Amino acid sequence: MDGKKILKRSLSIAALIMVPLAVVLTAAGLRWDIAAAAGAVLCCVHFFLAFEKRAPSARELVLAAVMTAFSAAGRFIFAPIPFFKPVSAIVTIAAMYFGGQTGFMIGALSALISNIYFGQGAWTPFQMLCWGLIGLAAGLLNKKGMLEKPVPLCVYGIVSGVFFSAVMDVWTALSAEGGAFSLARWIAALAASLPITAVYCVSNAVFLLILRKPLGKRLDRLKTKYGVFED
After folding, report:
1. For residues 135 and 221, what is the distance between their CA atoms, to the nearest angstrom?
2. Is the residue at 157 inside a domain?
3. pLDDT digit string (tens) for 81-130?
4. Cα distance between residue 128 and residue 218, in whole Å
Protein backbone atom coordinates (compact mmCIF):
# COMPACT_ATOMS: atom_id res chain seq x y z
CA MET A 1 0.00 0.00 0.00
CA ASP A 2 1.58 3.34 -1.05
CA GLY A 3 1.80 6.51 1.00
CA LYS A 4 -1.18 8.26 -0.58
CA LYS A 5 -3.53 5.33 0.09
CA ILE A 6 -2.26 5.00 3.66
CA LEU A 7 -2.79 8.73 4.26
CA LYS A 8 -6.35 8.65 2.92
CA ARG A 9 -7.25 5.57 4.94
CA SER A 10 -5.64 6.98 8.10
CA LEU A 11 -7.58 10.23 7.85
CA SER A 12 -10.81 8.34 7.16
CA ILE A 13 -10.36 6.07 10.18
CA ALA A 14 -9.46 9.01 12.39
CA ALA A 15 -12.51 11.00 11.24
CA LEU A 16 -14.91 8.08 11.68
CA ILE A 17 -13.78 7.50 15.25
CA MET A 18 -12.81 11.02 16.30
CA VAL A 19 -16.10 12.73 15.42
CA PRO A 20 -18.35 10.39 17.48
CA LEU A 21 -15.74 10.43 20.24
CA ALA A 22 -15.75 14.22 20.26
CA VAL A 23 -19.56 14.27 20.55
CA VAL A 24 -19.51 11.79 23.42
CA LEU A 25 -16.75 13.62 25.26
CA THR A 26 -18.44 16.99 24.84
CA ALA A 27 -21.77 15.59 26.01
CA ALA A 28 -19.98 14.19 29.05
CA GLY A 29 -18.50 17.60 29.79
CA LEU A 30 -14.96 16.57 28.85
CA ARG A 31 -12.49 18.32 26.59
CA TRP A 32 -12.37 18.46 22.81
CA ASP A 33 -8.58 18.37 22.89
CA ILE A 34 -8.74 14.79 24.19
CA ALA A 35 -10.75 13.79 21.12
CA ALA A 36 -8.34 15.62 18.81
CA ALA A 37 -5.35 13.90 20.43
CA ALA A 38 -7.13 10.56 20.05
CA GLY A 39 -7.65 11.27 16.34
CA ALA A 40 -3.96 12.04 15.89
CA VAL A 41 -3.05 8.79 17.65
CA LEU A 42 -5.38 6.82 15.37
CA CYS A 43 -3.72 8.30 12.27
CA CYS A 44 -0.27 7.36 13.58
CA VAL A 45 -1.32 3.86 14.60
CA HIS A 46 -2.61 3.07 11.13
CA PHE A 47 0.72 4.11 9.62
CA PHE A 48 2.56 1.91 12.11
CA LEU A 49 0.36 -1.06 11.23
CA ALA A 50 0.79 -0.46 7.50
CA PHE A 51 4.56 -0.31 7.93
CA GLU A 52 4.51 -3.56 9.88
CA LYS A 53 2.26 -5.20 7.28
CA ARG A 54 4.89 -4.42 4.64
CA ALA A 55 7.18 -6.82 6.55
CA PRO A 56 10.34 -4.66 6.52
CA SER A 57 13.66 -6.47 6.62
CA ALA A 58 15.92 -6.39 9.66
CA ARG A 59 18.29 -4.04 7.84
CA GLU A 60 15.46 -1.64 7.06
CA LEU A 61 14.35 -1.65 10.69
CA VAL A 62 17.90 -0.99 11.88
CA LEU A 63 18.39 1.91 9.47
CA ALA A 64 15.02 3.41 10.39
CA ALA A 65 15.89 3.07 14.09
CA VAL A 66 19.29 4.72 13.56
CA MET A 67 17.73 7.67 11.74
CA THR A 68 15.09 8.01 14.44
CA ALA A 69 17.80 8.07 17.11
CA PHE A 70 19.80 10.60 15.06
CA SER A 71 16.76 12.84 14.72
CA ALA A 72 15.89 12.64 18.43
CA ALA A 73 19.54 13.25 19.36
CA GLY A 74 19.56 16.36 17.17
CA ARG A 75 16.64 17.72 19.15
CA PHE A 76 18.47 17.01 22.41
CA ILE A 77 21.72 18.63 21.24
CA PHE A 78 20.02 21.84 20.12
CA ALA A 79 17.76 22.05 23.18
CA PRO A 80 19.60 25.19 24.48
CA ILE A 81 18.62 27.05 21.28
CA PRO A 82 14.83 27.56 21.37
CA PHE A 83 12.95 26.42 18.25
CA PHE A 84 16.17 25.90 16.23
CA LYS A 85 16.02 22.15 15.70
CA PRO A 86 17.16 19.73 12.95
CA VAL A 87 14.31 17.23 13.35
CA SER A 88 12.29 18.20 10.27
CA ALA A 89 15.43 18.33 8.13
CA ILE A 90 16.65 14.89 9.22
CA VAL A 91 13.19 13.38 8.76
CA THR A 92 12.89 14.98 5.31
CA ILE A 93 16.27 13.71 4.10
CA ALA A 94 15.64 10.22 5.48
CA ALA A 95 12.26 10.11 3.72
CA MET A 96 13.83 11.22 0.44
CA TYR A 97 15.98 8.07 0.39
CA PHE A 98 13.91 5.59 2.39
CA GLY A 99 10.43 6.53 1.17
CA GLY A 100 7.41 8.29 2.61
CA GLN A 101 6.14 5.40 4.70
CA THR A 102 9.46 5.02 6.51
CA GLY A 103 9.73 8.80 6.70
CA PHE A 104 6.44 8.90 8.58
CA MET A 105 7.68 6.31 11.04
CA ILE A 106 10.95 8.17 11.64
CA GLY A 107 9.15 11.50 12.13
CA ALA A 108 6.49 10.15 14.48
CA LEU A 109 8.91 8.12 16.59
CA SER A 110 11.35 11.05 16.76
CA ALA A 111 8.66 13.07 18.54
CA LEU A 112 7.70 10.22 20.85
CA ILE A 113 11.28 9.37 21.86
CA SER A 114 12.58 12.93 22.22
CA ASN A 115 9.61 13.85 24.38
CA ILE A 116 10.91 11.44 27.01
CA TYR A 117 13.29 14.33 27.70
CA PHE A 118 11.17 17.31 26.64
CA GLY A 119 7.98 16.05 28.30
CA GLN A 120 5.10 13.85 27.18
CA GLY A 121 1.54 15.08 27.08
CA ALA A 122 -1.58 15.35 24.94
CA TRP A 123 0.49 17.48 22.55
CA THR A 124 2.75 14.52 21.71
CA PRO A 125 0.32 12.90 19.21
CA PHE A 126 0.10 16.24 17.38
CA GLN A 127 3.90 16.41 17.12
CA MET A 128 4.04 12.78 16.01
CA LEU A 129 1.46 13.40 13.30
CA CYS A 130 3.13 16.63 12.12
CA TRP A 131 6.65 15.24 11.80
CA GLY A 132 5.25 12.01 10.40
CA LEU A 133 3.35 13.84 7.65
CA ILE A 134 6.40 15.96 6.88
CA GLY A 135 8.32 12.74 6.29
CA LEU A 136 5.51 11.20 4.25
CA ALA A 137 5.19 14.26 2.00
CA ALA A 138 8.96 14.45 1.47
CA GLY A 139 9.04 10.82 0.38
CA LEU A 140 6.13 11.26 -2.02
CA LEU A 141 7.51 14.48 -3.55
CA ASN A 142 11.02 13.13 -4.00
CA LYS A 143 9.60 10.08 -5.75
CA LYS A 144 8.95 12.54 -8.59
CA GLY A 145 12.36 14.20 -8.15
CA MET A 146 10.88 17.44 -6.81
CA LEU A 147 13.27 17.86 -3.86
CA GLU A 148 16.58 17.01 -5.49
CA LYS A 149 17.76 20.61 -5.94
CA PRO A 150 18.60 22.99 -3.06
CA VAL A 151 16.00 25.68 -3.78
CA PRO A 152 12.86 23.48 -3.82
CA LEU A 153 14.27 21.59 -0.84
CA CYS A 154 14.63 24.83 1.13
CA VAL A 155 11.13 25.88 0.10
CA TYR A 156 9.86 22.53 1.39
CA GLY A 157 11.69 23.16 4.67
CA ILE A 158 10.00 26.54 5.04
CA VAL A 159 6.56 25.16 4.13
CA SER A 160 6.98 22.26 6.56
CA GLY A 161 7.90 24.76 9.29
CA VAL A 162 4.72 26.74 8.68
CA PHE A 163 2.70 23.51 8.58
CA PHE A 164 4.16 22.26 11.87
CA SER A 165 3.52 25.57 13.61
CA ALA A 166 -0.04 25.88 12.26
CA VAL A 167 -1.02 22.37 13.38
CA MET A 168 0.59 22.78 16.80
CA ASP A 169 -1.31 26.06 17.21
CA VAL A 170 -4.48 24.02 16.76
CA TRP A 171 -3.40 22.21 19.91
CA THR A 172 -2.73 25.60 21.56
CA ALA A 173 -6.26 26.75 20.71
CA LEU A 174 -7.80 23.46 21.85
CA SER A 175 -5.92 23.34 25.13
CA ALA A 176 -7.02 26.82 26.20
CA GLU A 177 -10.22 27.54 28.10
CA GLY A 178 -11.73 24.11 28.54
CA GLY A 179 -10.57 22.48 25.33
CA ALA A 180 -13.16 23.93 22.92
CA PHE A 181 -11.77 25.03 19.56
CA SER A 182 -12.09 28.70 18.64
CA LEU A 183 -11.08 30.01 15.22
CA ALA A 184 -10.33 33.43 16.68
CA ARG A 185 -8.11 31.87 19.34
CA TRP A 186 -6.29 29.82 16.70
CA ILE A 187 -5.65 32.92 14.54
CA ALA A 188 -4.41 34.76 17.63
CA ALA A 189 -2.07 31.86 18.41
CA LEU A 190 -0.77 31.90 14.82
CA ALA A 191 -0.08 35.63 15.03
CA ALA A 192 1.62 35.34 18.43
CA SER A 193 3.84 32.50 17.21
CA LEU A 194 5.06 34.23 14.03
CA PRO A 195 8.57 34.92 15.40
CA ILE A 196 8.86 31.30 16.56
CA THR A 197 7.60 30.03 13.21
CA ALA A 198 10.14 32.22 11.40
CA VAL A 199 13.02 30.78 13.47
CA TYR A 200 11.77 27.25 12.87
CA CYS A 201 11.46 27.79 9.10
CA VAL A 202 14.96 29.24 8.91
CA SER A 203 16.36 26.33 10.94
CA ASN A 204 14.73 23.83 8.58
CA ALA A 205 16.26 25.50 5.53
CA VAL A 206 19.70 25.82 7.17
CA PHE A 207 19.84 22.20 8.34
CA LEU A 208 18.60 20.93 4.98
CA LEU A 209 21.36 22.82 3.16
CA ILE A 210 24.02 21.60 5.60
CA LEU A 211 22.92 17.95 5.82
CA ARG A 212 21.61 17.39 2.30
CA LYS A 213 24.87 16.22 0.71
CA PRO A 214 26.80 14.50 3.53
CA LEU A 215 23.80 12.69 5.01
CA GLY A 216 22.20 12.03 1.63
CA LYS A 217 25.35 10.41 0.23
CA ARG A 218 25.59 8.02 3.17
CA LEU A 219 21.93 7.08 3.05
CA ASP A 220 22.08 6.52 -0.71
CA ARG A 221 25.18 4.36 -0.27
CA LEU A 222 23.54 2.27 2.45
CA LYS A 223 20.37 1.90 0.39
CA THR A 224 22.36 0.73 -2.64
CA LYS A 225 24.79 -1.47 -0.72
CA TYR A 226 22.14 -3.42 1.18
CA GLY A 227 19.36 -3.24 -1.39
CA VAL A 228 16.83 -1.82 1.08
CA PHE A 229 13.80 0.46 0.74
CA GLU A 230 13.32 -0.41 -2.91
CA ASP A 231 9.93 0.30 -4.49
Report:
1. 20
2. yes
3. 888 999 999 999 999 999 888 899 999 989 989 988 888 877 888 898 89
4. 26
